[in-house]
Amino acid sequence: MRFGVNYTPSRGWFHHWLDFAPDDIRADLDSLAVLGLDHIRVFPLWPLFQPNRSLIRPRALDQLGLLVDAAGERGLDVSVDGLQGHLSSFDFVPSWTTTWHRRNLFTDPDVVEAQAAYLRALAGALAGRPNFLGMTVGNEVNQFSAAPHPDPDRIDAGQAERWLRRMLDACEEGAPGRAHTHASYDVAWYDGTHPFTPAHSARLGTMTAVHSWVFNGTAQRHGPGGAATALHAAYLVELAKAWAVEPARPVWLQEVGAPAPHVPPGRAADFTRATLAHVLDCPDVWGVTWWCSHDVDRALADFPELEYGLGLFTNDRRLKPAGEAMCRVVREWQEGAAREPVAPRTTALVLDVGEPDGAPGRGVCAPGGAFFEAWMRVASGGGRPAVVLAQRARDADHLAARGITEVLVPQDTP
């Protein structure tokens, strides 16, 4: 079980790459040491690292290496996101893909080959470092492919899969054998028209990454103290397992945070403890990476209000109550490291989304959907429900491999 944090620099946010300051980075990483974490996830800004289609800046790669080395000196492994892409409501795409050079990010042959070269270069620059975990293709790059993005690069599910495979292959070419994955925001699980699908998330890459944000309708529907709000991350972990080919495929809770006002600051610590407790009761979780390390400096303009206060630390590196809560959970888990593995979830709810690869009916999985609400009723009543696709509900070998001994349809839940 791994515990980490998405590293948001306290000075300048991700614009810190423009004024790279190793001493500030080291001070940030020192502040994380008190939490007992073992990894961070970091975010190069794509336009700064590859400002021209044929130019990947060597100095930028060197600076990324310095950050990874500084983390290693503090006992922290590092996962690196490549195509940034989208961060905290801002898009960072290079000028050679926009306006006069407007080209589809997922299908234009020149763009795709340049993206692959960039990911290969990032991975290759870090491949020799023992604390380099691997690459994530990008942060929620799926948001560029459909509404509500104001200028989407439209594709279908087949094109999305071809693009993902090409990007993951490039990561593997640069750093063979590392943990390379990709990450979608939760529309991939909740919208049957979205081109990035649950099958893509659960079957491509080394592990499945899920991002849990309760401002997606969960907190609005169930309230900041509602059981479903604290259970949402665990729900996504279990939902992800339904599509996996390998029964024990690891799931990485790559992003989860306490966004105000959906989770008021006074409730953030309780939300953190409850969310982690539920997730740690799920089998096959690789790790949890909290969003995020440090608050965004309010001197920076135009962020959505909720983005400013998501850190476990303030931007002057003072530990916040949510950070204290995470620290306690991490220490309690580490002190019980000899514990038995998490028990299988023996009861599964049957999920029918139609044909599973495209999952046209996955809207039932969204907050307010029939399946979502049924799962939450069982879980909030003390149950430990897993999820099984309708096509596998009578597959004895699949059920046995996952430890499932009972299946229920949503209509049969209390």
TrEMBL record:
Gene3D superfamilies tied to this protein: Glycosidases (3.20.20.80)
InterPro entries from the UniProt entry: GH
Keyword set, alphabetical order: Hydrolase
A GO MF term: hydrolase activity
Name of the protein: Glycosyl hydrolase
Species the sequence originates in: Streptomyces cinnamoneus
